[in-house]
Each structure stands twice: as C-alpha cells, then as structure tokens.
Amino acid sequence: MKLKNLAGLIPLLYATSAIAIEPFVVKDIRVEGIQRTEPGTVFSYLPVKVGDKLDDEHAAAAIRALFATGFFKDVRLEMQQGVLIVLVRERPSIASIEINGVKDFPKDTLRDNLKSVGLADGRIFDKSALDKAEQELKRQYVARGKYGVKFSTTVTELERNRVAIIFNVVEGETSKIRQINIIGNQTFNEKKLKDLMQLGTPNWISWFTKNDQYSKQKLSADLETLRSLYLDAGYLEFSIDSTQVSITPDKEHIYITINISEGAKYTVSDVKVSGPENILPHVETRKLIKVQAGDVFSRKELTDSTKKIGDRLGEDGYAFANVNAVPDIDKEKHQVGFTYVVDPGSRAYVRHIDITGNTKTRDLVIRREFRQMEGAWYSASKIKTSKQKVDRLDFFSEVNIETLPVPGTNDQLDVSLAVKEKSTGDFSVGAGISSNVGVVFTGSVTQRNLFGTGNNLSTQINTSKINQVYSVSYTNPYFTDNGVSQGFDVYKRNVNSTYTAISPYLSSTIGGGVRFGVPISDFENTHYGLSAEKTQLTLTDTSSLQMKDYVRIFGPSTSNLVSSVGWSQDSRDSAIYTTAGTVQRAFVEVALPVSNQRFYKLTYQQQWFYPISQNVTLMLNGEAGGAEGYGGLPVPFFKNFYAGGPGSVRGFKPFSIGPRDLNNNSLGGTRRIVGNAELLFPMPGMNKDRSVRLSAFVDVGTVFGLGLTASDSLRYSTGVAVTWVSPVGPLKISVGVPLNKQPSDKLQIFQFTLGSLF
C-alpha cells in the first residue's frame, strides 16, 4: 500500500490546510530511527495510543510533543495499513568538551558553569545551549574586567551520532579603570568621595586588591556608599542622576562618570511617637530614639533608632513588630519631622530550632549552648546570646542565625542556625628568630572537639633543647547538665634554660591535677583546681646566686600541693572576629601548708575591644601579677614571672625583660605588669574577608620585685602585626621596634607563631 505522509516539517504543524488525511484508527505503533533513546521513552511522550482515532489535529499534537522533549531534530509520522510509524532523527549527544587557552579560571569551575546552562558530557547537544554557554563564559571574564576576551567554538561530528565541542579562548589583558569623575559635588571634595569607593585607579597595591578592575556590583556598592555619606550628613534630597561607564576601543581602559545632585541640608523639626502604650510606653520609646528636634538629619541615626525600638519589642516576644519613621518634609524651610509609628503585632513563640552545617559536631553540643528554647516566647536577647555562645565554642568559622515566620501563622517562628565547621585539631608551632640564637621552636597537639562531643583533649610532646614537655589534658565542658566542667592534667616537664635569656638551670617536674569550672552566668565562670607536683633541680656553675640560695634552703628536690581558684568573664561579640566587648580573668594559686614551699601567686588580665568605626577596632589589654611567700619562706625561683616576646612586649626576646644576674641573664621577678594598645583593621581591599587582620600596636611591660621597682626595667615597643587564619592554621606575625632599649637588652625584632590544622 502506498505510504501516506501524515506530517513532516514544523512549519506545517500550524497549517491545518496543508495536510488533509482521512482519519483512521491506530492498530499498532512502530518507532524507527532511534539509536540511544528507548522505544518506551518515545511511547511515554507520544499522546497517541493503540485504539485511538488519529486525525490532522492529533497528528500535529503528537509531533509537537516529541519535538518538545529536545531529543530529536526531526520527527515524521507515516501510516501503513493502520499501523502508525514514528520516524525520528535523534539529536547528537556530547562526547567531550575541551576548553583551551584558559589561565584565569580553573577549568573545573568553567565546566560547572557550562553544565548549569545545559552543556556537559553525555547530554543531548543543543545549539541554543551552546550559545548560552558562550555567553556564560564571556560573563565570567567580563566580571574580572577582561572585556577583550575572544571565543571561537568548534563542533566536530563523530561516529554514533556524537559531537566533540572545543572552546578556544583568547583571554586578553584585564581592562583597567583609567579615570573616575564625580560631577555635582560641592560639600565634599572629589578626593574624599573617591577614597570611600572600592573602585579606583591603579596604585601600588592594586595587584592585590584588584580595585582597578571594573565590576558592576562594586560600582553599585560604591554608589550606595556615596548616598549614605550624604544622607547621614543631612542631605535628604541627594540623588545620583546618572552613571556612565565607557571603555576605549582597544578594551584596555575604562572611564566612569558619576553625576550627583546634593540638594539642601535638612534639620529635624519634630519627633513624635504613635502606637499602643500598653505594650511599650511612649516615654520609653522616646529614650530609644537618637534623633531629636534641631539635629541635622541623619539616615543612620534614623535607622538605628528604628532598630532599637524593634529590638526592645523583641525582648518581650514581639518578633514581627513593624516600626516606621514617617517623614513630614518642609522643602521651603529645609526641615523634616518624623512620626515613629509602632505596630508591635502579635507576640510570637519559637516552634522549632533547626541546625545545619554541623557534619562533625553533634547537635547536642550546639543545642546545650542555646538560651532560646523551643516552645517558649521569642526573645531577641536570648537569640543573640545563643549565637554568641555557639560562636565561642570555637568549633566553627561561621555562625549565622535567622528567624523565619511559620507560613500561615502570625504568632510562630522557626530559628535557623547555620554553621560552617572548621578544623578543631591543632598542631601548634611557635618560633622566634634572632641573630644570636637563631630559630627556636615549640609545639603541641590539641583536639578541642573530640569526636564531635565538645570535649577537649590536648597532648603536648615537645623535645626541644629548652623545654621538653610530655603532657595530657582532658576537659569535659558539661560534666553536669547545668554546665559544670571537669578536667584533669598529667605532665612531665624538663626545662633547660641554658639556651634562653633566663639564668641557667635544669629542672624536671612531674605532676597531675584535677579542675572544675562552675558557671555563674552565660558569660561568667569560676574555676577550681588541685594539683600535686614534684620538682628536681640541677644548677650550673653560672646559675644565679638566688638559685643557689634556694637549693641550699630547700634542697634539689621539692614537692608541692597547689590549690587554685579562678574567675573569668567574657562579653565579646565574637570569638572569631572580635569587634566589641571585654574579657576579664583573675587567678590565684596557693601552695598548701603540707608542701615544701609556702607561696601564692595572683594574676589579673582585662581586655577591652572598642569599635572605632565599622572596620576598625581598638584593643586595650592590661595584665598584672604578683607572688609572695608566707611562713617566712621565699617564692620558688621557677615560679617567677617573666616578660618579653609575643604575648607581652614584642620586639624583645622572650623572658628577657626584668632583673638580671651578673652574667646578664634574666631572673624573672615576683611582680609583672604588661599593657598593650592595638588598633585592629582589615587588610586593605579585603574588608569582607575575616581571615586576615592587620594591626598597629604599642606594648609596655616589666618584671620586678627582686630589689627592683617597676620603673627600673620598664620597656616599650611599637610595631605592626598581621593575623591570618591560613589553610595551615592561624598565623601571627609581628615586627616590633623597642622604643627605650638599653645596651644590655636582648632584642628579637621579627616574631611569629603558627598553628597547623589537621
């Protein structure tokens, strides 16, 4: 029987008069032309079944359905003695994708981007997907300032209906910002405005910051920075009229022009409050508002006041409070009044607390730090405290918390905590470099989150010439459910001070102890400990007279039973990247009367972190310590205080500051005073990267008490430091310059400590 062509080309699908067939009942269906596609796949998409009546309309619908799958580039229907024959021609599959000439990107990253637009090995080849892929590659390069990038694509047909795709990329040079022009500014000069912007013209650090490479996102951020500057200075009508970005024909240079209108400077005429007084009295609301009549208008002050009112309502459970400052503008007098409209909404409670990102740390370890409970009224302060306590575990590089309304309700919300775990095992290495000693190393091994339980296990093995230590310490921070911690320490320590700045002696100490921590509040704790140790001393011919007198009185072997009491308070906003808050620590150590010695030691430390600006923080640190004997006995010389080096006065060799013996070796002392002032700020061009932080410091400190006063040995230094949370651990580097060095001082200008994570 002669075959009848029922349908063919796509254009004919919509021309019903182009094909007129006599309808027939489908007795069977046969698929021809497939190579990779299973017949069942074709049948599943075909809207015609055996027994159906096929006419022009149904035939067109069948062809449209098969084309819509994207598997075929040609589809035809034929009929032979009541059998519907589906003739298809498959699109080729992608056998391989090759990218040549790429230097700026990892090829795997580009492959992932191509995959997102439908181009990957094994997928059906689609010309439209290839066009999208080229656009995606170009977008990636343009985002890096390479506007001159060129692409050429080759598609080679292979056997078994496959194709190989080759992208040839000529990256070209990065386009640089040649000039930035700001037009319309009168209040602030152009230099001040440009200094606030991320984008800029090339300078000595542009190779690192990349600030001379144009980015649409960076420009948008810079425009918002300019807007904030003017709105915070009272220019309510400030506007950015236009922004032009042009590139030279050779694609090498970019010119940016920003046109602004400053408008007039506005003052605040009046401030009113509207809202229910039974929930938050207006008198209390006014105390939270920083904007007052007569002040210069500031958007920042306005926003801060709105946030404070919202936070205050959040303390009482009103999580969905809505606070708006409605303006009343008088353009003739250049004044603006505000009415704070307070709508507390419904009081809300927390339905669920969800934790994500903790692949190692157990949920219990995180949940026990929460002060906001499920099923309880929402409290903004408890949410904040919970975040701070999870942050202070120091198990995570990021801790983010969100409150999400429960759909369909107006009095419930879920708390979502997302963490990003970091390595909590440390192989710590300390080093110092000087001209007379060279490099000195120390080390220890610690796991602060043992098996994800939150317990701390530390094993120190140090076989250096100076300090041989073998110790094991274990701490369970939740020995009881209410947060009482328990820990123990076992150690053997051999000291050979011959290679240090300390007067030479050798000691071998073995000991152990138990300790407990009792919480007073969320950020305040007390600590109690009891330890026993035995020390064997060996002196040399050059040991100090004080050391020889001590051995003559007590002998070369001594035993001590030492009790300790401590107190700590930590109100820092973050342990990862501190910008505000304080830390206080006090510690008392007493040798009990059953010991060979009779002495006590007291130490106190306080740190202040004060945010000077959004990115700059001032850190002040003060430490004081004192030791005394009782019962007519002296303080053991190996319990003396020392100063100098990282952690006290940088620029001086560790332990070198203070009283000296006849050989100019340090003796330590029974009194210690250390002060540090440090200005912390981000690496230029890396404001959002919290892994690197720079600082400028001034250190002062001394050790005294052995016939000397504090002023006899007070030392000062200044310098710069960098802290980097590197892939191999936290790295701290400092360059310190002594300000009042004496001829007998031992200096160490460059110092660093490095922790290696595993």
Task: Please sum up the structure shown.
The chain has 758 residues and is of the alpha+beta class. Helices cover 17% and strands 43% of the residues. The N and C termini lie far apart (78 Å).
Which structural traits does this protein have?
four-stranded mixed beta sheet; 17% helix; 758 residues; 16-stranded antiparallel barrel; BamA/TamA_POTRA; Ubiquitin-like (UB roll); 13 helices; single chain; cell outer membrane; transmembrane; alpha+beta; 43% strand; Bac_surfAg_D15
- Counting helices, strands and paired strands, the structural category is alpha+beta
CATH class of the largest domain: Mainly Beta
CATH homologous superfamily placement of the largest domain:
membrane protein fhac: a member of the omp85/tpsb transporter family
Tell me the strand order in the biggest sheet.
Answer: 19-20-21-22-23-24-25-26-27-28-29-31-32-33-34-36
In total, how many domains does the architecture comprise? 6
The helical percent reads 10-25%
Strand content range:
35-45%
Rg, nearest Å:
37 Å
Family: Belongs to the BamA family.
Protein name: Outer membrane protein assembly factor BamA
Function: Part of the outer membrane protein assembly complex, which is involved in assembly and insertion of beta-barrel proteins into the outer membrane.
Subunit structure: Part of the Bam complex.
